[in-house]
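for the recovery benchmark. tokens below, seq after
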């Protein structure tokens, strides 16, 4: 019985034989823990390691398995992760380079590492094992997952996000998506370093935020919308009061005066739900200068439009959309779902009046994030939106292009001028010296 030695290290953990051995060993260990009435959760890491090692050696001898030393090490590490942590994904949770952990059933575990999506050699024993780990993650959050409520979206205690969806909704086994919390959120300087946008673009966006332009960051999921929104919110002058509204709080604003609100799903009896719209309405009573909606995806959109055009200028949010024009039609669609009663014309007027700037971000093939478009919404003509493009990313030349067009928005023009004239004397005095 030397089946384990025939596998290279990475293949080892993928192989069915290893998984089956691991499954048996895991059950054996759980039985021992129960029989001996011990609680490894209270022990030091070294104590757990000693215990696990001793039991594994006993098991190997008892079963007469031919396993080499390195394989024993792998088993010991895996079993410690099973007893104390989140099984096969524990090491990914500890790995600082990993942003996202994506589990598609028992056999596929992907990670996003430095912007790139990669398949790992790790896996779970079977679907039941994935479920056990999902329950272990959700239990301290007070959230449950079963056939009657087969999906959960929640915030982890450290600020990360977890989404779990299981059969019958997930067809290929329980799926788990973890977006880890970045201890150091990306700042403007990082975005410049990574080439997500260039100086002139950042300057324009900063001026737009300071000038209180209403702004939407759009793009696909994972494109970097929340990250950019977070950076832009940092330009809100410190004397203003911000209220943020999110389904799962992710924003970590670099600002002294922020009130963070998070919606609440219904409880087990189906009661107590507080949705984004209710939160937004409440936020309006909190005397905010600006409102930031983490992700606009429902009827709260109508209230946001209203807030943007009535005293809360400079509000911002993100929206799933594939182009600036698509963003505007999505807003209309959301208004429709929200039971908007007016005509298409008045709705468009409202949208065109409220939304001033649309910034689209995208994830490139190699994993880099780019600001693909900065569009200004300039008004309406013949029941159509008027927009002009100020910047775009040219994927063929791999560079950012500034168009010849200058912003129409008078607030933004004034702000840009003010910032120009502020830097002028500084530059001049440098020449004097
Ligand atoms: N400009 C960027 N460069 C590199 N990585 C980024 C950038 N923006 C975001 N990320 C990473 O991409 C992941 C998704 O970002 P996020 O802003 O949450 O996307 P979205 O809100 O569009 O779903 C996060 O792990 C984040 O750290
Ligand atoms: Mg987001």
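predicted aa per position
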């Amino acid at each position: 019985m030397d089946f384990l030695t025939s596998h290279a290290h990475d293949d080892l953990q993928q192989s069915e034989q290893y998984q089956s051995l691991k499954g048996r060993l895991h059950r054996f260990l759980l039985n021992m823990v129960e029989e001996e009435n011990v609680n490894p959760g209270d022990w030091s890491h070294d104590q757990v390691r000693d215990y696990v090692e001793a039991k594994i050696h006993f098991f190997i001898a008892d079963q007469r398995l031919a396993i080499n030393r390195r394989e024993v090490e792998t088993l010991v590490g895996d079993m410690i992760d099973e007893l104390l942590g989140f099984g096969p994904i524990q090491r990914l949770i500890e790995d600082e380079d990993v942003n996202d952990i994506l589990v598609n059933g028992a056999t596929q575990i992907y990670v996003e590492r430095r912007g790139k999506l990669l398949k790992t050699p790790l896996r779970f024993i079977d679907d039941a094992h994935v479920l056990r780990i999902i329950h272990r993650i959700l239990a301290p959050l007070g959230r449950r997952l079963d056939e009657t409520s087969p999906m959960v979206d929640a915030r982890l205690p450290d600020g990360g996000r977890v989404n779990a969806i299981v059969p019958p909704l997930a067809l290929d086994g329980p799926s788990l998506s973890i977006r880890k919390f970045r201890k150091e959120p990306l700042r403007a300087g990082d975005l410049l370093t990574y080439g997500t946008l260039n100086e002139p673009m950042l300057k324009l966006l900063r001026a737009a935020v300071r000038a209180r332009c209403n702004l939407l960051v759009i793009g696909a999921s994972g494109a970097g919308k929340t990250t950019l929104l977070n950076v832009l919110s940092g330009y809100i002058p410190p004397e203003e009061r911000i209220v943020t509204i999110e389904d799962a709080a992710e924003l970590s604003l670099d600002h002294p005066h922020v009130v963070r609100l998070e919606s609440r799903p219904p409880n087990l009896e189906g009661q107590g739900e507080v949705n984004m719209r209710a939160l937004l309405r409440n936020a309006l009573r909190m005397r905010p200068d600006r409102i930031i909606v983490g992700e606009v995806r429902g009827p709260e959109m109508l209230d946001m439009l209203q807030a943007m055009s009535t005293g809360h200028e400079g509000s911002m949010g993100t929206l799933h959309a594939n182009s600036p024009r698509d963003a505007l039609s999505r807003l209309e669609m959301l208004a429709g779902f929200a039971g908007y009663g007016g005509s298409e014309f008045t709705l468009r007027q409202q949208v065109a009046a409220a939304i001033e700037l649309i910034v689209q971000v995208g994830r490139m093939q190699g994993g880099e994030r780019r600001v693909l478009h900065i569009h200004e919404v300039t008004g309406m003509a013949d029941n159509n939106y008027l927009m002009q493009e100020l910047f775009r990313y040219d994927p063929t030349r791999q560079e950012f292009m500034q168009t010849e067009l200058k912003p129409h928005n008078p607030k933004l023009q004034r702000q840009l001028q003010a910032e120009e004239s502020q830097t002028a004397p500084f530059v001049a005095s440098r020449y004097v010296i």
